[in-house]
Structure formats: structure tokens, C-alpha cells
Amino acid sequence: MPMSYFIGLSVVMFAMGILGVLLRRNPLVVFMSLELMFNSANLLFVAFSAYHQVLDGQLFVFFVMTTAAAEVAVGLALIVAIFKAKRTIDLDQMSSLKG
Amino acid sequence: MSLGLIFMYSALALVVVVSGIGLITSRNAIYAALFLVLNFVTVALLYIALGAPFIALAQVTVYAGSIMVLFLFVIMLLGAEQLPIAEPLRGQRVLGILLAVAFLAEMVLFVLLRGAPTVAGQAVSPDFSTPTTIGMLLFERYLLPFEMTAGVLLAATVGAIFMTRQPRPDRKGALPAMPEESKE
Amino acid sequence: MSLNEIASLHPFFQLAPLVVFLPVLGLLINLLVGRRLGEKGIGVVASLATAGAFVVAVLLAVGLAQVSEGGTLTLANWITLGDLGVSWSFRIDTLSVLMMLVVSGVGTLIHIYSIGYMHSDVRHNEDPGRFRRFFVYLNLFIAFMMVLVSSDNFLMLFVGWEGVGLCSYLLIGFWFEKGADGIGNARAAKKAFVVNRIGDFGLLIALFLLFYNFGTLNFAEIFEKAPAVAAAAPGAIMAITLFMLLGVTGKSAQLPLFVWLPDAMAGPTPVSALIHAATMVTAGVYLVARSQALYFEVPAAQNVVMWVGALTALFGATIAVGQNDIKKVLAYSTISQLGYMVAAVGMGATVAGMFHLTTHAFFKALLFLGAGSVILGVEHGHAHAHAKETAHGHDSFDPQDMRQMGGLRKRMPLTFIVYLIGALALAGIAPLAGFFSKDEILAAANEKSIAVYAVLTAAAFLTAFYMGRQLLMVFFGKPRSGASEKAAESPLLVTLPLVILALLSVFGGALNLPGSHLLETWLEHSLAEAAPGEFVLTVALISLGFALLGLYFAWLVYGRKPIFEKDQTDPLQRPLNGLFTALANKWWVDELYHAVIVRPYQSISQFSAGAVDQGVIDGLANGMGSLVRSGAKAWRRFQSGYIRSYALTIVFGVVLVITYLVLR
């Protein structure tokens, strides 16, 4: 397939991730949207890795995955902790740090 | 390129986009998570098509498997809360959509103007990205990043445990209980 | 040259660095273990250190007598920057060694004298702990003075120049909590420092210009290139020499920067003798003598130097007539005599100038130390006369006021004799040292310009007059206070250096007797171009006549009918009236400077502190502060606490960046 196919698909996925982060108030969905954006970047990595015949791109995907896993672990723990304290996970209820 | 291939790629792209839309529109977090799993699996298929079986398998096991299980677990734990549909932040919805559209348009413009490669790459040799070659690369050139990633994972694990454990006030060095915040 | 090379010239030459390091050693010993040595030990260590420097200087002189061209010993490289190389080197030639001999020789005698003098002084001022500090400062001064005279480049000379200025400051303010209002001495020290700074500014500019025009600061290289540079850029040499002259007027107390020297008498008397009469203030004369190759290139600058010196000689002499403080008279006399030296080096009669520098060091040190002895005697007498009434504490008695003295001839015979010798030498009475050196200057002036000659001769007349006045007021007549009635002769430690200096003042003229010209043949190795000093009999007789006339007038006014009351008006007041008031008030120079420079400066400072600093600068700072505050107040609305707003902002930024990338 031409590269433009993968680029286009990746851009669309990324835009959907942006929409999810900006519009959803459930932090879990926001997290999933973030994963979607990671995925879009990963797709491009792999596509260009194949295009240039360089394996390093796939290695980067590997590292992105592990880092995403770590991020999810911490993020979810945070959400659980916040829920314990506030009994809600609505992002718009959390504005104590406003200036 | 054969018609079958074009059909297959189009179908995959359609599934990716639809599952993405499902993710960001479904009001129930469970559905969102399931849409994301579908999305991940489809992308994994694309990885296989691109000649990256190791990454594809990692995607399925790590992402679609364990990470999503973690998500679902937390959703179950906290109760899939249904939040009111009204948008409390003025202009957030409009601005968000505008920005996303602007981003999309700009990327398209960018690709058109800069002339991204439109032709397919060279044929992928069968031994291009076997797990063996990836392993060799990972443990030779990328050994240090690999070890550091391990450290990051360990730190994340410890951090997650620390944040979610039950605070015991009688223990020294225990996290003080978070104060109930007054609603504004 | 390295140590080996210089040693091959003459073995004594390698000792040269010791002239600096021996005094440094002395001060280190006193600084570190002085507390345990006791007063005697401290004095002996300090005196030995200086005497050691003197011995080294003598050895260098012996070496120079055999290898007359001398040499340069490089001790260390200080600055190496591109083409510029400045090293700490010792230039051993006849001029520098002459200065070393004067500094360390007179210095040693004054060190010995100080042991006795400071013993009483620290007790009189009720802080015996400062005895050690005094000798540390003195040794530091000797070390810096040696750096100054032994340097082979202008920068190292400047180091010594500033170093002796520092020591001068420290020693003027030695009793910094004493004096008028308790800050009089501190104020005098500050004044000396600030006025010297003005002069040093000039010297620094001269140094910059030297480096700019010559590309080096080394004496030998500069003097070698001087004719070529003068031909290419005569204005540059003119500027260099005149800025250098500004430095000279500061350090050597010439018009218009002489005002600090009279106030410097606030320091202990040995300091006045060593620093403010014999050695440091002659640094300016040494500088001009050393740089004469530059001055010879611009006769106009020479004329300026000459006139500055001549006018200072007359000006200082006139003020000295109207003073009543025994040390102030000597201070203005020093200014006047320095004027002679500066005039001499300005005329190109460098040998005569250096000759007068040497003899002046002898008899002026003698006079100051003699004055110190008188002060000690009077203080002693005061303590005796008022032994019963110590209960009422300090009174306003001033042991330096000549009006309170009188008749000390009988009480302090030895001091009287040596003081008489010093005064006559200063007045230029044959055959004492001052006669020969002064007449050499006058002879040179006679050849150069008849106007300068007239001015200098008038100053010589006044010199004889005020010295006669002082002698008569201090030693003759009847005691005018209980203190001078009970005055006692000073101890041997004080009088012995006086006797030695008196002998030097008597026989110092032999250095350059007409006919032998010992000093001239000695100096011609360093000062090849200097005009040979001459002795003209008529000039000598005229100046001798004027000197005797001055002494006779002094006797007419003060000797025939000695003043008998300490509050009596000066006999000169009536015939001279307004003029004498002007003299007594030092021509109001201090007041003039105060009105012309200090006042406007203070009001400018006031303006800067008030309107500029508090108004503009503070306004700017506070304005910045309130600007930031109000800006922050407006911007804090963006810190809404909503994560999604932040995310929106981030995405907005991303879109902006991509916009830039697209449009690029």
C-alpha cells in the first residue's frame, strides 16, 4: 500500500484521540484516547520502518508500549486514589489548583 | 495491486475509524474500552501486513490484552459512572472540535505540500523483522534504553502500589489520609 | 635575565629580591608571633628586616660600582597576554639602587627611632596593643616602596605605587578614633586616599596610553622606542607625560593635589618622617626621573612639570610661614621642597633633583623626628606639670602647638642641636647638605628660565624665614606653658637616630660636591641624557645671601622680641594683616576645593540618591513589580484548574507549531 494510506489513517486516529481528550470528562476514556494517539504514532513508526527498511522504528514502538504500560499503571492508580478521596472521577470536579 | 488487497485495506481502515469514533462517542466506559480493543487488534493486523509480526503480537498481548484488562478492571472497580451530557466548560466543545479539524486539515495540507512518499516501499524480505533480529538489536544497540525502561516500569509499579494502598495512620511514614474536599 | 645570568654579571645582583622579601619576612614574623615577642622584640625584628634590606642595597651598590650598567632579574611572569608580557622583575641600576639606599637607610633609622617613640605614643594614646600593628605597617610600607623603585616596568611600579598609598592611608589613620570629633584622623586618612586616587587615575590613563602606543610596559623597551613614537605621534607622548604628571602631583603633593599632605600629619610622627617626607612622596620625583626619556621628547610637558614644581615650591613656602603646628610647618615645607625636586626633574636636571631628594630625605627626616622628640618632651612635661590634676581627664592641650613651647633649648639640648642642623640644612646654609643640592637646582633653573629661578629663590628665602621662625618659637625665648617648662630630653633610642641623621645632613652634600660629582657619575649610567648638574658660584652666593636674609628677618620678627604669651597674636599679623590671615588659613585652598568640588559633588550625589535613585530607579523597579502583578492578575484566569482547558491550550500550541511548519 502507498505510504499516504498509513499517514492518513494515522492522522485520523490522532485527531480522534485529540477529540476524546478534549471532550470527554471521564478520565478513563481520556486515558484510552491517549492510548489511541500512541497507537497512531506507533502505526507510523512501523510503516516508515518498513518503508526505509530500518528496524529501529519497530524498536521505538516497543519502547513506546512499555512506557505506555507504565503510564497506564500510574495513571490508573492516580484515578483510583482520587476516586477514594472524592468519590467521583469527573475531571471537571477537580479544579482545586486553580489560580 | 489486486482488487482484493485494496478491499482488505479499505475494510481495515474503516474498522479503525469506526472503532475510534465509537471510543470517543460511547457514553459507557465499558463500550469505549471494547471499541479500543477492536481498534488495537485491527492495527495489529496492519502491523502484520507491514511485515512486523513481533510488534503485532506485542500489541495484542500487551495492549489489547493486559492494558485493556487493567482498564476494564478499574472501570469495574469504580463503577462505570455515567456523567451528565451537558458541557460545563464554556466553548470547550466547539474549540475542541475546531482544533481537531484544524489539526486534520493542516496535516493533510502538510502531506500534500511536502510530498510525502506516496509509493509503496520495497518488498519486505521475510527475515527483515523476525523476533530474532529484533532481539539482537534490542540487546545490543538498545541495551541501555532497555534497562532504563525496565527501571521506569519498576518505578511505575512501586508508585502505583504506593498510591493505592490503604493508609494506616498508626504506621510511621504513612501517607496522611486525604482530606475530604469541600465542593465549590 | 634569570638568576644564573644575573649572577654571572655580578654575584651580588642575585640578592636583589631580598630588598622586598626581607621586610615581608619581618612583617610576617611580627604578624604571626609578634604578640609573644614583646615591644623590644617586635622593634628589633622590624628594624633588622629593614636594616637587612639596607645591607642588600649596599651590596647591590657595591656590585654596581664594578658592573655599572646593572641588569634586570626576572623573578616571575605575572601577565602574559598575546604580545604583552608583564613580569615581576628587579631592575638593578644606579637610579633604583640609589632609591633603595635612601628608602632602607632612612627607613632603618626611623624604625629604630620608632621603637622609642611608639613606646610612649601607644601609652599616651592608651592602646599599647597597636605597637605591633605599627611595625607591621612600616615593614609593609618598606616592602611596597622597594617594589616601586625596583620595578622594571610601569605596571609593577604601579603595584608599588598603590601599595605605598595603602600603607600611607593605614598609617595616617593609625589612631583612627582620635582627632577632631573622634573622626579627624580617619577623615585625614580618607582625604589622603581620595586625593591620591585622583592622581592615580591620571597615572592609570598614562599607563593605558603607554600600552596603546608602545605595546609594552617595560621601561627599557619604551625608552628605546620613545623617539620613534614621538616622531609618529607627538600628541600621544604629550598626553602620556601630562597624565603621568597628574599622578605625580597626587603622590608628591604638588599643586593642585597637595591638600592631603598637611592633613597626613595626623599619623604618628615617624610616619610623617618616613612616608610623608623622606620616601613615599618622592615617588613622583622618581617616576619623572625614571621616565625622563619620555619627557625629553616633549619640551612643553617638561615646562609644565617645571612650573608646577616651582609654583608649588613658592606656594608651600608661603603657607608654612603662617602655621603654628610644628608638624604642619614641616609638612608645607615638604610640599615646597618636593616642588624643588619636581621643578628640577622638569628642567631635565635629573641628577640635581635626585641629589636634592637624597639630602632632603636626610634633613627632613631629621626635622620630623626632631619634632617628634620635641612633642615627646612636651607631652612628658605636660604630664609632669599636671600630674596632680589628672582627675579632670583630657584637656585641650595640643603638644604640637608651637605657641605653647618656647625655651626648649635648655630643656632638650641634644634635640635642639640636631634640629638646628636640620633647619639650617633645609634653609640652604653652607656647607650643609641642603646648600649643595638646592644650589644645583637653582643653577639649572638659572640656565633654563630666569622666571623659574626667581620663583625658586623667593621660595628659598621664605624657607629660611619659616625655619628661623620655627626655631625661635620652639627653642628660644621663655617657656610659654607649664608643659614646656617641664619638658625633658628624649631617651637614647630616640636621639641616636637623630644624631646619625644630623651627621648625614651635615655631610650629605659630599655626595655630589662640586669638583667630585660623585652622584652624577654614579647616576649617569641610568640617566644618560640628564643635563650635567653645575655649581655656579654667583648663584650659590645669591641663594646663600637670601637664606641668611631670611634667617635675619626671622630673628628680627621673632627673636629680638620673643613672643611671651601663648595667646599672643603673631607678630607678623600686624604688618601683613590680611595676607597673614590668608597664609594662616592656607590660602583657603581646602575651603575652595570644598566649595568647588566637594559641595557640588555632594549635591549631585543627593540628587542622584533622591530624585534619580528613589524616583527613577525605584520607580522603574516598583513599576516592573506592579506591572507583573497586574499582568499576573489578568493571566491567572487561565489557570482555571480544569485539566481539559490545559489540554486545549496544549493542542492549540501544537496546531500553532504545525501551522508554522506548513507555512514555512
Short description:
Helices cover 68% and strands 0% of the residues of chain B. With 184 residues, chain B is an all-alpha fold.
SSE layout:
The complex is a heterotrimer of chains A (99), B (184) and C (664).
Chain A: H1 3-23, H2 27-52, H3 56-86
Helix pairs in contact in A: 1-2, 2-3
Chain B: H1 3-25, H2 29-49, H3 53-78, H4 92-114, H5 131-140, H6 143-164
Chain C: H1 3-9, H2 18-66, E1 71-81, E2 84-92, H3 94-124, H4 130-150, H5 154-172, H6 184-214, H7 219-232, H8 234-251, H9 260-263, H10 269-278, H11 283-290, H12 292-295, H13 299-321, H14 326-347, H15 350-385, H16 408-411, H17 413-427, H18 433-448, H19 450-475, H20 482-485, H21 492-507, H22 518-523, H23 537-559, H24 573-576, H25 578-584, H26 589-635, H27 643-663
Antiparallel strand pairs in C: 1-2
Describe this structure in words.
Chain A is mainly α and 99 residues long. Helix content of chain A is 79%, strand content 0%. Chain A has one domain: Helix Hairpins. In chain A, helix 1 runs antiparallel to helix 2 (27-52). The radius of gyration of chain A is 17 Å and the shape is elongated. The mean pLDDT of chain A is 88. The mean pLDDT of chain B is 83. The radius of gyration of chain B is 22 Å and the shape is extended. In chain B, helix 1 packs antiparallel against helix 2 (29-49) and helix 2 (29-49) packs antiparallel against helix 3. With 184 residues, chain B is mainly α. Chain B has six helices and no strands. Chain B starts with a helix and ends in a 20-residue tail after the last helix. Chain C has 664 residues and is mostly helical. The model of chain C has no long low-confidence stretch (mean pLDDT 87). Chain C starts with a helix and ends with a helix. Chains in contact: A-B, A-C, B-C. Chains A and C meet through helix 1 of A and helix 27 of C.
